[in-house]
Amino acid sequence: MSNATVPGRESKRNFIRLTAARAAIASLAFATTAHGQTTPPPADPPVEKIRPSKIILVGDSTIQPQSGWGGSFCATRVISTAACLNLARGGRSTKSYRAEGSWDVALGEMKTPGYVRIWVLIQFGHNDQPGKPGRSTDLATEFPANLRRYVAETRAAGATPILVTPLTRRQFKDGRLIRDLDPWNDAIRKVAADLNVPLVDLNARSAAVIEAMGPAMATHYAQAAPTPDIVAAALTGTTAASDPSAPTPPAPPLPPLAAGAPAYTARVRPLFDYTHLNRDGADLFAGIVADELAVQVPAMRPLLVP
């Protein structure tokens, strides 16, 4: 073989390689069907639409964020496809919640479109008790009538009402829990039975838990830490009276505002009492509420985190 023929053979081989490479690229870039049409990309899988629900909380400070179980319930006990709206407001009763317009806000939320089902948890009692001007209601007549009206209007708005007995207070005498909310609990149970409304008996469950742990341990769940004298009294089996007239310690100073920024809302540091909850207390009783809902309202089980 002469050296003169080698370049020709190499050129032929290079030509063949180049032609094959071009064919491969064309094949990858333009895959065709038997009819010469381009092959479409794989179709996206079908999108499954969500079926969202909404849970609305109505009541007083034992539900509202910062001092009640509602904040923990919405944050940790409800799945993401269930909107959880806490409309509870401190110091409200069945009378004052409506009078100030808070119930109108709740009704508006019940009528919001886009939800498969809307549930409304209604808990009152603490501020319906006597001695609270502008809030107290008559236990025999006004209190149950107010609850019945809440139930009727919730149903008329297309939502499902659920009545909740009020969270127990944590006061003891001689080692026994003081059950000063029992008459209001009974009234709520009767309305629930008469109107065929699901009932979360939070008072019964929370009272059993608090009585089992005793007065000293129960102080751990208060919104503010107990003072040494309160702890000492609890260890005797009889809780000391909390003093609502005691001066409120000032809250820590807030950072300065930027020019033109709106003013801060006034803040106060909470005092110890036997009603309101810290984070541990909120978590404890939010879990109880979720557990009761799963039992009493089976249709809500898919929305709840155990």
Helix content, binned percent? 25-40%
* Secondary-structure element order, N to C: HEHEHHEHEEEHEHHH
> Main β-sheet, in a few words?
5 strands, parallel
Strand residue content: 5-15%
Q: In DSSP terms, counting alpha (H) and pi (I) runs of 4 or more, how many helices? A: 9
Order of strands, main sheet, comes to 2-1-3-4-7
Shape: elongated
Alpha-carbon Rg, integer: 32 Å
Question: How many beta-strand elements?
Answer: 7
Q: Which stretches are low in confidence, meaning pLDDT under 50 for 5 or more residues running?
A: 1-5, 243-249
Q: What is the average per-residue confidence, as pLDDT, rounded to a whole number?
A: 88
Question: Any chance you could write out the topology, listing elements then pairs?
Answer:
Layout (H helix, E strand, L loop, with lengths): L5 H24 L23 E7 L10 H7 L5 E5 L9 H4 L2 H9 L6 E7 L18 H15 L3 E5 L7 E2 L2 E2 L4 H14 L3 E2 L1 H17 L9 H8 L43 H18 L10
Parallel strand pairs: 1-2, 1-3, 3-4, 4-7
Antiparallel strand pairs: 5-6
Which short descriptors sum up this protein?
alpha/beta, 9 helices, 306 residues, elongated, single chain
Could you give a quick summary of the protein structure above?
The chain is α/β, with parallel strands linked by helices and 306 residues long. The chain is 38% helix and 10% strand. Strand 1 (53-59), helix 2 (70-76) and strand 2 (82-86) form a beta-alpha-beta unit.
